[in-house]
Amino acid sequence: MSSETNHKAITKTVVTPAQLLDHWQGHRRLTRKTIEAFPEEKLLNHSIGGMRPFAIMIQELLAIAGPGIEGLVTDKWQDYNEDLNLNSKKDLLKAWDTLTDKINNYWSKIPLEDFQKEILAFGLYEGTVQSTILYFIDNEIHHRGQAYVYLRSLGIEPPMFWDKN
């Protein structure tokens, strides 16, 4: 394939990198609202059916997306470690906000052509840069859904799932 043909294939995308970042950050804003909706004690300790408390799930999301976005750019992957010792709502929200800035910073360093590059994230997950980002988003949605069940069990209305502002 000539470089001109390759360039045309790359520029004919359904979702641009900027749109994908906005989509991801929209989910992150919604997850942040979900964290805020929890009373601190319940955020740290409430669970149903053997699932982990939401605070532990948030630490998983931070442990994946933080080193993940860095690994996507540098191709240097840290060992996966979700034991972040974040033991308060304040600490979780601060880490969440710091990661939001990190994602925005690293995102601009992903060349357009790299979104289809094959990678091995964390030495475990084979896919493209794009499919790995979609995995990060899907995992977050999955855990936010669990948090919605927790909130409802506590009599708390979760944020509207479409409110990503």
Automatic annotation (TrEMBL):
A GO MF label: metal ion binding
Q: InterPro entries from the entry?
A: DinB, DinB/YfiT-like
Signal peptide (UniProt feature, chain positions) = none
The family database entries (Pfam families) matched by this protein are listed as: DinB (PF05163)
Swiss-Prot/TrEMBL keywords: Metal-binding
Binding site residues for a divalent metal cation: H143
Q: Which family does it belong to?
A: Belongs to the DinB family.
Kindly provide the name given to this protein in its UniProt entry: DinB family protein
Lineage, please?
Answer: Bacteria, Pseudomonadati, Bacteroidota, Flavobacteriia, Flavobacteriales
